[in-house]
């Protein structure tokens, strides 16, 4: 058994060494299919000038009727800022032209009492997309709306009570007791992504992406650059601000021989070794420019499969070309010096794998020496030390227990990768607060990689083992060092009774608890397409296809990517019969419910032992709800509040009615001004969940986005359920509000 058996690095093998390598060629069948001519789109605004508090209609028009639903992507620019000067109808950045129609509208509403002088301009530009055409560059269809500083009506009257004397009155009930601080959970909210080649069931591998940057795809008609921009926009909309991408050392041609001594790495995988082509470098810069334009920071895995070469002349050539192009780029978050040696001297020999560097071989191994040299070299080129790291595999029982090994291993035993990374930083002399520890952090059962060479292993479930792992990592790095899980998720094959979304929710909790800076979830889409139906494979964010249809992990990313309020008694752990800081009203019963008394609950241990349970009374139109104490907020800020909700019913008496008239669960955000009076601009935002949104299989995650009005200083969260004619009572369990 070799060291390579210790850690399954299937992610890179499947991408670079399997069927996915044919991605560089567009199937001829796609190119020859005769398609209906896609509609050419234009956009207009009416009226073109509005006052604060007023609305304008943006009309997107097509030259022909849509044969299927078309999702149109648009971007907002100008001096007017989204959420500060105006809002648009959700989902932001998208509009749908329905089948059989030739247009759609978006409403832009200017926020009241925001502008203080002059005017601001909001410009809306249509982006390229699938199934429609727009002109590119400076000729792209766009329109503008001017928001002037004049009230729509005399109502807002900001004078009645400036009265600075009563001072912010901290007593009425903002209740500063047990709740986390408001804000973002993490600075790094990422996705590990290969850009999907939508409509083909394939992806652009990193080399493919750079080689085809300005080449139109045979299925969508979009260039790789346009497709990347659209997918970056979608990632931003669901809360991501970082994207991790892997680039390998690639051979000039693909021979298909991934066996020693050739160990051929295809051009689809990355940049040519040892000298990247000028086209590759130029397009790498364009990728970073596009990321910056879209508000994305890139985490770059540079997987060098020639780590053993001494002197490292070729490595210097390869890294020098890359870092010379993007080492100082504003969109660069981190560079990770990953990879392997070219051929393992095993019996029989095997090819190195372009993945996490095998730091478990020890500080004096080829991997340890290469990482140290690469960081020093990058420092000499002026790349800040805080952006330089290598990925340390964490959570491996075999590695952390230093199981015995022989060939190529320092000291004849395995090493803790995070401890080896620390020793490299120490030897270079990088200050603790200038280090970034990059982790490969996957949840799995403790003994998944235990073998006969290591000590006996006592099995643990994924959640407690992940927490022990995080605690150990922090004990190695010290309290002030930056830790980022540059790839994270659920280990494959997936364990029983532990879903990808549960693993991701728990990882976010653990990273918060141990002061980590977040990370990038593996992965954006499945590849190859057969993985979508494989129960052993972790669930990706997006389903393969032209449309942006998401799986359950998207909800967790939206949660982690949101700006949050500090919810009091968020898991209802405190209180007697009723939860502290919550008031129950209506017809029915409401109480703290001992969730841990149920088998298999809580589904995720970090949710706590209790939940809020609301059950409607005997009347067919009864409503019951629980309302939080006041929570301080900032006006015109895009917030996300997430809850784990469990509800399920059937027999909706009005299935085609309005959501307000059907049986539903609701979450309301009720706004109050600085004097604790209801907002005169917007009293509340209410989200409703219907029969089809429930689940018979436990809790679901519901992230909700909302923007408090300009006069809001506080909000109260109200959670409730309304029968609205349902013959039977409804029970709602709510937990883990954040």
Overall outline = globular
**Poorly predicted segments:** 1-35, 152-180
The largest pleated sheet is described as: 10 strands, parallel
How many distinct beta strands? Answer: 36
Distance between the termini: 46 Å
Q: Give me the Rg, rounded.
A: 27 Å
Percent of residues in helices comes to: 10-25%
Strand percentage: 25-35%
The total of helices stands at 12
Overall residue-averaged pLDDT value: 89
The chain-level structural class is: alpha/beta
Give a quick rundown of the structure.
By secondary structure, the protein is an alpha/beta fold. Helix 10 (462-477) links the parallel strand 22 (436-443) and strand 23 (482-490). The longest helix has 16 residues, at 278-293.
Describe the fold and architecture:
- The chain starts with 9 loop residues before the first helix and ends with a strand.
- It has 12 helices and 36 strands.
- Mean pLDDT is 89; it is low at 1-35 and 152-180.
- Strands 11, 14, 15, 16, 17, 20, 21, 22, 23 and 24 form a 10-stranded parallel β-sheet that branches. Strands 26, 29, 30, 32, 33 and 35 form a 6-stranded antiparallel β-sheet that branches.
- It has 738 residues and is α/β, with parallel strands linked by helices.
- Helix 4 packs parallel to helix 5 (278-293), helix 10 (462-477) packs parallel to helix 11 (500-513) and helix 11 (500-513) runs parallel beside helix 12 (553-560).
- Helix 11 (500-513) links the parallel strand 23 and strand 24 (518-522).
